[in-house]
Write a structure and sequence with these properties.
Radius of gyration: 29 Å
Largest sheet: 8 strands, mixed
Structural class: alpha+beta
Number of strands: 18
Helix content: 25-40%
Length: 448
């Protein structure tokens, strides 16, 4: 039987040599979220299918074409989550977060699944960072949410992003807009795709989001939603823009943005890049004031955004954004012989307990092979231990970058390691452009 050696189409491995990049981005996002008052929430990877049908909208491409849906062994229809908001709302209601102080701010990181044609920046299993804010109707919340997303891009060092915003109104003013869209698209019904013909009566705004080139071309001359906003929605949108200006965030009003999910109301926005081709939207979100009620809760204003991790990584690489280097082992112990191996085990145990990354060769190879292995691992320091070193309880600690060697006691290895590495770091410090000798302050002998 042949081995299965290829991942499922539309999925991608994150390998050890690159995983530090993911971890760097993820930790920075969570840190920024904390600063904005967002706490992490973790929801299941799959939910009842009805949650997404009601939450995302049964006229969307996501529900109609892209969901991974199946019956479990109990005959229940479940779906791998295609996005994070519906599950977050369900958790907000089920766990009583709605009874706590409002607004409730949550964020999440995790995989999502959509059956789409894979291409650069678009996978069938992808990962999202999302943020949701429940319990505030203020336009200030809209602006702050946008500033939250922008803070992520700024701190990651991403350049040349454009922020596009729009208002798609509330159910009241959108009813008038739907009438105008129906009238416009009805005159082109023979050219619309089958899916959009079905959408014409149920939700004509979805036609604006159709990926068909023919439908997209027709939609270019369709009425724009901002011409149909009621007074309240117009005032809300104006206030959002004023707050963005106060935050010194540049933006463009794009009346064609409707977002791909049915739950949005009023403010919608996208951060778009021209650096990664067709899949240029790296972050999108907006307000969804009716979703909590739609899923069984009280009438609760809410808003959020989602950011695709793979697309973000693609953008950072396209712009040559620098990532921190992968964490290298602090120490590699080269052990020669059984006694040396036992001593290496003891040293490594103590080093790890003190927070250092310390390794030894599990294959117990030759001296040359072990040193070569330590070099491939980019170990910062190495120490060679043989029978002589065990007997004398001392060895030479080698700086793998500079080649400098210092004697280190084996019975007090951790404290010796601290002294040598700290002395080396302090010697490298400069004050007013001149080297300063700190070693005397700590009773360290530079000759050691």
């Amino acid at each position: 039987m042949a081995l299965i050696t290829k991942a499922v189409k539309g999925t991608k491995d994150a390998l050890p040599k690159d995983i530090h990049k993911n971890q760097y981005i993820e930790s920075m996002m969570i840190d920024i979220a904390e600063r904005f008052g967002y706490k992490e929430i973790r929801t299941p990877t799959f939910e009842h299918t009805q949650l997404f049908q009601r939450g995302v909208g049964d006229t969307t491409d996501v529900v109609q074409k892209e969901m991974y849906t199946f019956d479990d062994k109990g005959g229940r229809s479940v779906t791998l989550r295609p996005e994070g908001t519906a599950g977050a709302v369900r958790a907000y209601l089920e766990n009583g977060l709605c009874n706590e102080a409002l607004p409730q701010k949550v964020c999440y990181l995790g995989p999502c699944f959509r059956y789409e044609k894979p291409q650069a920046g678009r996978l069938r299993e992808f990962h999202q960072f999302g943020a949701e804010c429940f319990g505030t109707a203020s336009p200030l919340a809209d602006a702050e949410l946008i500033s939250f997303a922008k803070q992520i891009f700024d701190e990651l060092g991403i350049q040349d992003l454009s922020l596009e915003i729009n208002s798609i109104g509330c159910p009241t003013c959108r009813a008038e807009y739907h009438k105008a869209l129906k009238e416009y698209f009805s005159s082109h019904i023979d050219k619309l795709c089958d899916t959009c013909r079905d959408r014409l009566d149920r939700n004509p705004m979805r036609i604006l989001d159709c990926k068909s080139p023919v439908c997209s071309e027709i939609a270019k001359d369709a009425p724009v939603v901002t011409d149909y906003l009621c007074d309240e929605c117009r005032e809300h949108f104006g206030a959002v823009q004023e707050y963005l200006k106060a935050m010194q965030i540049e933006y463009t009003v794009n009346p064609k943005i409707v977002r791909g999910l049915d739950y949005y109301t009023k403010t919608v926005f996208e951060f778009v890049s021209g650096s990664i081709g067709a899949q240029g939207t790296v972050c999108g979100g907006g307000r969804y004031d009716g979703l909590v009620k739609e899923l069984g809760g009280q009438d609760t204003p809410a808003l959020g955004f989602a950011l695709g991790m793979e697309r973000l990584m693609l953008l950072m690489e396209a712009q040559n954004v620098e990532f921190p280097k992968a964490i290298a082992p602090d120490l590699f112990v080269v052990a020669l012989g059984e006694k040396a191996t036992l001593k290496a085990i003891d040293i490594v145990k103590d080093m790890r307990a003190d927070g250092f990354t310390a390794l030894y060769d599990l294959n117990q190879r030759s001296l040359r092979a072990q040193l070569k292995y330590a070099d491939k691992l980019n170990a910062k320091y190495s120490v060679i231990i043989g029978d002589k070193e065990v007997e004398e309880s001392a060895a030479k600690l080698k700086n793998m970058e500079t080649g400098e060697e210092n004697e280190i006691p084996l019975d007090k290895f951790v404290s010796g390691f601290y002294n040598i590495t700290l002395s080396s770091q302090l010697d490298d410090l400069e004050i007013n452009g001149e080297e300063f000798d700190f070693s005397s302050l700590f009773g360290l002998d530079k000759k050691d």
